[in-house]
Amino acid sequence: xKKTILTIVLFHIFVxxxxxxxxxxxxxxxxxxxxxxxxxxxxxWESIVEKTDAQLxxxxxxxxxxxxxxxxxxxxxxxSGKNLMDKLTYKALKADDYPNITFVFKKGEIIKEDAAHxxxxxxxxxxxxxxxxxxxxxxxxxxxxxxxxxxxxxMLKMTDFGIDPPKALLGTIKTGDExxxxxxxxxx
Length: 188
Fold this sequence. Notes:
Elements: H1 2-20, E1 23-38, E2 45-49, E3 52-59, E4 62-74, E5 78-79, H2 83-92, E6 100-113, E7 117-128, E8 131-142, E9 148-157, E10 167-168, E11 173-174, E12 178-187
């Protein structure tokens, strides 16, 4: 009898814990944005990413605990408002061979936390133009529940991904090697 009661109690504890740790998946929603900013010998520039697909899985017990995060940016959706610059960007990113830029989350390291937000390093694999590098992206995540919002910026060098910074007018206008990716992603 004692063994049966113990088995029933353990079963209920297991079911309760399993229910509490159930994962929930969210898709990216508007108003989400991704900007790419850089410099050139002529002027600073900015491109807007028009097509970003992302999926986030969190633990229901604690919404700021990320289990998976996959982000895909369509290279041909990167728009500067200048046709020539866009063409040079697509060529530099080898858009014909690698139509997407992807980030796959591997783990997170909490930097600091307060009542409203968690500052975290999202560590994962970033693939640009066929080259994959491990990166640590500083991100702020809200703790108020839904919607979940991830905000941050990340600087990188194009040459680290085998990309020659674009040039125009026979090389008289040169893009700087370092770019900044700014993001504000909303998940529901």
